[in-house]
Specification:
about 40% helix; three-stranded antiparallel beta sheet; single chain; about 140 residues; 8 strands; alpha+beta
């Protein structure tokens, strides 16, 4: 062996270190994306659960006239660049199903995350989502 010559063991060690470090960086990146999705999912679930519980609770007032203006909270997450993003989720109401969803941007691209909850309401109770995106108000009325 000449002076300054790299041995095969040292080269294999460096190659193995590069492979291990690259693998760990992929695992860490995937873990971060998964954590962001779980965070958004939990926020959406909280909003849909509270909202569907309120809609179901309006049955107790079914024989009266009422208007409920419910403020829907914004959700908070970190985008692909690590910037804090605050956005309002969208809500779709079917006959007995409340769907709260949001489109978020991660390192994997745009991801649609939703949360579904079921409720029961009186047929005369109406749910209006028209003002939701502008001022974050969901209106529940019974007339």
């Amino acid at each position: 062996m000449k002076k300054g010559q790299i041995t095969l063991d040292l080269m294999l060690t460096f190659i193995l270190m590069i492979v291990v470090i690259t693998g760990f960086s992929g695992v860490i990146l995937n873990f971060k994306n998964t954590q962001e999705k779980i965070l958004v999912q939990e926020q959406l679930y909280t909003i849909s659960s509270k909202t569907s519980s309120l809609i179901t609770a309006t049955q107790a007032l079914a024989d009266t006239n009422f208007t409920i203006a419910l403020h829907i909270d914004k959700i908070n997450y970190a985008d692909a660049k690590g910037n804090n993003v605050i956005t309002r989720p969208q809500i779709r109401v079917d006959e007995s199903k409340l769907i709260v969803f949001a489109q978020i941007t991660t390192n994997e691209g745009d991801v649609l995350i939703d949360s579904n909850n079921y409720f029961y309401k009186n047929p005369s109770t109406k749910i209006n989502t028209d003002n939701l995106q502008t001022n974050g108000i969901l209106v529940i009325t019974n007339e």
